[in-house]
Write a structure and sequence with these properties.
- With about 375 residues, the chain is of the alpha/beta class.
- Among the domains are: about 170 residues, no CATH class; about 90 residues, no CATH class.
- Helix content is about 55%, strand content about 5%.
- It has a 6-stranded mixed beta sheet.
């Protein structure tokens, strides 16, 4: 599954969610670098690719992290995340509906693995209240845009219907949102606020590294790949495989790992580079694999490796002093030893055919060579 996707019906969904915003409430906390805490303010238009956090995005991804078996080559979620959350909740003597409904929710995920694509859903909403209100409309309409009372509402229903296509999927969504609501009130909200407080210095450092050093170096690449502007979200559950959404030159979201310590702040930059090249990596793979390779799942493995290798190429061209750290980070992410030669271990772990590798290099050359 690619990190970079274009979401069906995004404009209509967001418009409908905004119309519902006055009803408000729920988990909508957001922080930006330099802020004092949760806020619903939008970043200044003058800030290019601001660094932010959003509680409802983390809550949604937290739900997936504790439910799904993360068997992807480059993991979505931090290793041991689910176990760590169980330990924290046990210490606090907390049991939520997410715990009570875990087996039922997991069973549907196993029957329909495509539901994992719904990890991207919260990136299209500003708050938890907006998301849950849209879900409520969608469920009551049985996923049918023709049951909508307005064009905006129809667009919002169609947006969610692309992810939740059957009655069983809609039932899963209803139970998932209900369970997350309870999880938030009993545990996750207080945990998230505490983590924002404890990692505020990390947020500030990531912002400094990004805005003063690495974003200006990558901006040419971002401009020439239709990613001139957007928002970077630091997310507590995520690891080396970010969750990103593209919807035009000015409306992109890249969601990446939230490092735990200031000394690890550059890890967020690594994942930003990985996510930024996902589009050209996907093209390089799709143009150079056979239908049989696509059917057997080899294409998906190549796409994962190509995004990692592409990120390394972007780092090498723009910020070679952190290339060694990038390679070490992704080797650690996939639980592979570094050995005596980091580059050799990296290349051997994230293998590509010569044709895919060469196509990736050519595309990067074209993008960085553009105006």
């Amino acid at each position: 599954m690619r990190s970079l996707v274009r979401v069906f019906g995004l404009a209509s969904a967001v418009a409908f969610a905004s119309a519902c915003a006055s009803v408000g409430g729920g988990t909508g906390g957001s922080t930006t670098s330099g802020g004092a805490g949760p806020t619903s303010e939008q970043p200044s238009p003058a800030i290019i690719w601001p660094i932010k956090t959003r509680e409802h995005v983390d809550l949604w991804l937290h739900g997936f992290a504790v439910l799904q078996e993360d068997t992807t080559f480059v993991p979505f979620f931090k290793r041991g995340y689910s176990t760590d959350m169980i330990v924290l909740k046990n210490r606090a003597n907390v049991v939520s509906q997410l715990d009570a409904n875990r087996d039922k929710l997991r069973a549907r995920l196993a029957l329909n693995p495509q539901l994992i694509n719904a990890q991207f859903v919260p990136l299209s909403f500003a708050t938890w209240g907006e998301l849950t209100q849209t879900v409520d409309v969608f469920v009551h309409a049985n996923g049918d845009p023709r049951a909508a009372s307005s064009q905006q509402q129809a667009g919002a229903i169609a947006f969610l219907a692309a992810y939740f296509q059957t009655g069983a999927d809609r039932d899963w969504l209803r139970l998932f949102v209900q369970s997350l609501d309870d999880e938030s009130s009993r545990f996750y909200h207080s945990y998230w606020v505490q983590q924002q407080r404890e990692r505020s210095n990390v947020l500030d450092l990531v912002d400094t590294l990004w805005q003063r050093t690495y974003r200006p170096r990558m901006q040419r690449f971002l401009n020439n790949t239709q990613q001139a502007q957007g928002t970077v979200l630091l997310s507590l559950p995520l690891d080396g495989e970010g969750r990103s959404l593209t919807n035009g030159k000015q409306s992109n979201t890249i969601t990446v790992t939230f490092p735990e310590r200031p000394s690890d702040a550059v890890e967020a930059i690594y994942v930003i580079a990985h996510e930024a090249v996902s589009g050209i990596a996907s093209t390089a793979v799709n143009d150079n694999i056979t239908p049989e390779q696509r059917r057997t799942g080899l294409g998906e493995r190549y796409q994962s490796a190509a995004a990692v290798r592409g990120g390394a190429l972007l780092i090498q061209r723009t910020s070679p002093e952190i290339l060694d750290g990038y390679m070490r980070y992704y080797l650690k992410s996939v639980n592979r030893p570094v050995g005596s030669n980091v580059q050799a271990a990296f290349t051997a772990t994230f293998t590509l055919t010569d044709t895919i590798r060469d196509a990736l290099v050519r595309q990067l050359d074209v993008v960085l060579g553009g105006i």
